[in-house]
Every structure is written in structure tokens, then in C-alpha cells.
Design goal:
It is a single chain. The protein is mainly alpha-helical. It has one domain. 70% of the residues lie in helices and 0% in strands. The chain contains 3 helices and no strands. α1 packs across α2, α1 packs across α3 and α2 crosses α3. The longest helix has 22 residues. It is globular, with a radius of gyration of 13 Å.
């Protein structure tokens, strides 16, 4: 149960950073969704290049989650996909 709360918390933090970098105004729900999608993308990249010694936490988690969120926002911008605004 705690890991689900951890995913939402990291998703929120990385989503807030990503949306502030890309200057996008979206609701808090979509911010968390953006961060979780970014975490999935960033986690996939991190596990392709290196496995963590501790299976519970990868050291590049927040950084790659944020970069994944920025990538998702960039792709949505290029494909003209709009999130519900605040």
C-alpha cells in the first residue's frame, strides 16, 4: 500500500516540475497522471541501462520521471493534444 502512495507522491513532484518547465497550466489530477506516465517512461530507460542494487528504489527515479514528464508534454504539444486547463 505504501508504494502506491509513494508513486503518487513522486508523480506529483515530477509532474509539477515538468509542467513548470514547459509552462503548462493543468489540473492537479492531470499533473499526477503526467508524473506517473513520466515515471513509467523514465523507469523503463533507467532499467535498460542499469539495474539498481536496491530493488525498492532507483537513484535516478525523480530525475528521469521529470524528464519523462517533459517528454510527454513535448509530444502532446507537437501532436496538438490538450489537457484540461485550470
Amino acid at each position: 500500500m505504501f508504494h502506491l502512495i509513494w508513486y503518487v507522491l513522486i508523480g506529483l513532484i515530477s509532474g509539477v516540475i515538468a509542467k513548470s518547465v514547459m509552462h503548462v497550466h493543468i489540473t492537479i489530477f492531470w499533473t499526477v497522471v503526467l508524473g506517473i506516465i513520466g515515471s513509467i517512461l523514465g523507469g523503463g530507460v533507467a532499467h535498460m541501462f542499469s539495474r539498481s542494487t536496491n530493488e525498492r528504489y532507483h537513484p535516478a527515479g525523480l530525475i528521469l520521471s521529470t524528464l519523462g514528464g517533459i517528454l510527454v508534454l513535448y509530444l502532446c504539444y507537437k501532436l496538438n493534444i490538450r489537457f484540461p486547463a485550470v
